[in-house]
Amino acid sequence: MHVLHHYQLSAASRFIRLVLAERNVIYLPKLEIPWERNEDFLRLNPAGDVPVLISDSHGVISGAMVIAEYLEESETPSLLWGDVASRAEIRRLMHWFEIKFANEVGTPLLSERVIKRFSGEGQPSSGVIRAALSNLKIHMQYIDWLAEQGSWLAGKQLSLADLAAAAHLSVLDYLGDINWETHPEAKAW
Question: Cα dihedral angle (28, 33, 37, 38), rounded to 10 degrees?
């Protein structure tokens, strides 16, 4: 059985949990608290980031995009479908959410609203929160536009891009940062 080291409010971890669920892969979840230094976990992934998947047959696999690609090669159904251009677009959008959206919106909001509170790393920065919320508006407009193009973000069917976006938005929705009424296309998607 696979073991998934994760944190509940990590969008990257949520992304992988969605990918595993979509493929009906059974795994044992192992909670990692980002601000607590766990030496056993650091031996698995010296970067200290979640998610980390321990595969029965292939050992330790670290990072959401790497795990998603690994699962794409080893499990079915395919969430990276289509011709080479379609697969490139899915990867581009997956990268958009896992890197750009995370850096500009998700990570700053999670850090300021949750991690600082529970880790004792200081007071939240209203400036950082305002900047991230401003960036969120731009990203939500992009999601609205993508959703207007079709039923799914990258084309005609569910893909890794949709799961990556859903994971990131679910964290922000949990934190109460998304006004769905101003983004009807994203809400419908």
Answer: -10
